[in-house]
Amino acid sequence: MMVGLWTDALLWGLVLVMALGLAAARSRPELKRPFAKLAEHPSGVVALAVLLFFLSVALLDSVHYQKSGGEVLSVLDTLLTPLRDGQEKTYSAPFASQLYSSEFMETDTGEPVWGRPRLQHGGAHLSDEDHHIQDIALKLLAACGRYLGLLAIIALFVWVSWRGLQQRWRDLPALRWATWTILAQLALALVLWDVSHYYHVLGTDMVGEDVLYQTVKSIRTGWVIGALTTLIMLPLAIGFGILAGFFGGWVDDVIQYLYTTLNSIPGVLLIAAAILLVQVHMANHPENYTSLQVRADTRLLFLCLILGVTSWTGLCRLLRAETLKLREMGYVQAAFALGVKPYRILLRHILPNVMHIVIISVALDFSALVLAEAVLSYINIGVDPVTYSWGNMINGARLELAREPLVWWSLMAAFCLMFTLVLAANLFADSVRRAFDPREAEHG
Amino acid sequence: MFSYLLRRALYALPLLLGVNLLTFLLFFVLNSPSDMARMQLGQKHVTEQAIANWKRQRGYDLPLLWNGEQSFPESLSETIFFQKSASLFWLEFGISDSGRNIGADISQRMWPSLALALPTLIIGLSVNITVALLLVWFRGTGVEWGGQVLMVALMSISSLFYIIGGQFLFGKVWQWVPISGFDSGLNAFKFAILPVLIGVLSGLGSGVRWYRTLFLEEIGKDYVRTARAKGLSELQVLFRHVLGNALIPILTGVVVVLPLLFMGSLIMESFFAIPGLGSYTIDAIAAQDFAIVRAMVFLGSVLYIIGLLLTDIAYTLVDPRVRLS
């Protein structure tokens, strides 16, 4: 049975709207040049491919259904069953077959011995410990062979059967970069997935949960925060910014007052107050929040909402300044003189001409939001503690480097995936700025 | 000049009133004092009597805005708004929910915050500007490209990792500095050095990129060409002319955050156990101490508005073209 979560619906809706918007924008002649410029830089194309790969993982993780046992799972959970099921007792290192720390165990004869117990899933197929390393290498090689072969066959098939492809492959370097990036990511994901049947590739955490599973599940949280916050912030920023710049007078005064007031309140404290509000609300209405998933989802949605409310001011100020400039332009004055109604001028002449600022700012904000989630979760005013997120992972693992012997894989895993997503977002934002900023266009 | 500043200062009043109303709305209307009491006393098994006691002890048992039981002046003053929110205007922060004097706490805790934030700002600013100028100096070469890549990578790392990694390397592995803690006087130096270093590093990526764009914008202007034509060396052009003119946007960016330095950095202070206002705020959030959070919201807003005012003054001082009117 399908389960509808708010963030699921909104994320899918947003992606659909974005796809439709892109399809509509393709035919616009004035957007030809920026799109062509976007495809010029390998870094931007590769970053976009990485972002899209992460997005598809997030989308897979955003289709929830209820199993007969009452357990709510996403499609991604089902795909990752080998990772999800491999529950161990406590810490184990990447590719380990034994727990990380020693404890007393009983031998067959009932004698207590001091040693490291075998894992229940990781390396459980090994009959003797001596071939551990060889087995890992063998499993990795086998997985590489299998999936690289599979990918190669599919690629060959597409190559031969799709007639126009060869020509495009030669003409469009962007297509080559994107394809290679996606193929590399697919291969990596498939190999990791395959080896996960036998080992915990990134180890397990304190309660014995697979770290790779946690990091992959965190992708959705990162995307939801980045995307939904933008969705909430954009209407506020665009609406208020354009209105303030266009009408001036008391409208401008009120809007300026509004954003200066909001800006002057430390954002973290506003978020803290709002999160407390949700907690109180949930505590007072327990009947509406029966399952953990719904609770976590509501809190995530509310976090996006409040982040959106605190973050529209910057873009609003930029748009107001730009609209002030545009209003004095000849073509807008001409439209006024011809008696065009104000709202038509806004929609036809102002809005399209400030869109580049919106696009650049959205691309820049995305990475900032993913980073902000980690900090907020650390202060416990971020996502719900049961939600998988990089912030929660870091928060849970921050004392692990102080342990003896130290546990590094949780932090490493969160670091790698978060770094990849944020770096991709930053590189893509740079590329978008190069393509859409008219000042960059003047330089050629 | 004076009348302009007076007008700006008066403009701050409605802003502060707005902040005050918003916090009032958040902390008293949407979260009622009864909710707060229930949160503090534990969710279940709380009697109405216990809640009423809790509210009376902290002065939350008054009406919100208008006290109908009293005659005119008291009907306004004997309310939660007047006693808890409006009193913030004369910087009377009152007593925290755990019974401590917030004003005294703040005046004691802002100095460690400042001891950390001020060096971070100054060192960070000089490092950022120098690196940005060097990148501009090497523009068009591999050094610039490498620097750019490095900066994007640096700004893609969460500040949490800088802190965790820094504590691990310098505190645990090499044992150069204590991992966390603070001390008074000059002894604070060895505790402050690592947080400052990490603060500078975590701001490096975005800072350098921002200053670089500022410098690149200046470098295409006519006066730079004139300076070169006069035979000045590239170094002189960069540090004398470009830096001098780019100082205006840099200055405005810095001045606005100056007062906020008192507020400290939330995560830095919490990780390094610095007894400043940042960790004070975090502790208050964790303990759900609304009185402290409210006080910090107001203090932060006051400092921000002071920053805006200082920015206006700074503009007139550095840029003779700006006339206040």
Explain what you see.
The complex is a heterodimer of chains A (444) and B (325). Chain A is built from 17 helices and 5 strands. With 444 residues, chain A is mainly alpha-helical. In chain A, strands 1-2-3 form a 3-stranded antiparallel β-sheet. Chain A has a two-stranded antiparallel sheet with strand order 4-5. In chain A, strand 4 and strand 5 form a beta hairpin. The radius of gyration of chain A is 26 Å and the shape is globular. The model of chain A has no long low-confidence stretch (mean pLDDT 87). With 325 residues, chain B is an all-alpha fold. Helix content of chain B is 72%, strand content 0%. In chain B, helix 9 crosses helix 11. Chain B is globular and about 80 Å long. At the A-B interface, helix 10, helix 11, helix 14, helix 15 and helix 16 of A face helix 1, helix 2, helix 7, helix 8 and helix 12 of B.
Can you give keywords for this protein?
heterodimer; A: mainly alpha; three-stranded antiparallel beta sheet; two-stranded antiparallel sheet; B: 325 residues
Give a quick rundown of the structure.
The complex is a heterodimer of chains A (about 450) and B (about 325). Chain A is mostly helical and about 450 residues long. Chain A has 17 helices and 5 strands.
Identify the biggest protein-protein contact and residues per side: A-B, 42 and 46 residues
Strand order of the largest sheet of chain A: 1-2-3
Percent helix of chain A, as a range, is: over 70%
Could you give the distance between the termini of chain B?
Answer: 8 Å
Overall pLDDT metric of chain B:
84
Q: Strands, helices and their partners?
A:
The complex is a heterodimer of chains A (444) and B (325).
Chain A: E1 2-3, H1 6-26, H2 32-38, H3 42-60, E2 64-66, E3 72-74, H4 75-79, H5 81-85, E4 103-106, E5 112-115, H6 132-161, H7 165-171, H8 173-195, H9 211-247, H10 249-264, H11 267-284, H12 292-327, H13 330-337, H14 342-378, H15 390-397, H16 409-436, H17 438-443
Antiparallel strand pairs in A: 1-2, 2-3, 4-5
Helix pairs in contact in A: 1-9, 2-16, 3-8, 3-9, 3-16, 6-8, 9-10, 9-12, 9-14, 9-16, 10-12, 11-12, 12-14, 13-14, 14-15, 14-16, 15-16
Chain B: H1 2-30, H2 33-41, H3 48-58, H4 72-77, H5 80-85, H6 102-137, H7 142-155, H8 159-173, H9 188-219, H10 222-229, H11 234-255, H12 266-272, H13 277-287, H14 290-318
Helix pairs in contact in B: 1-14, 2-3, 6-7, 6-9, 7-9, 8-9, 9-11, 10-11, 11-14, 12-13, 13-14
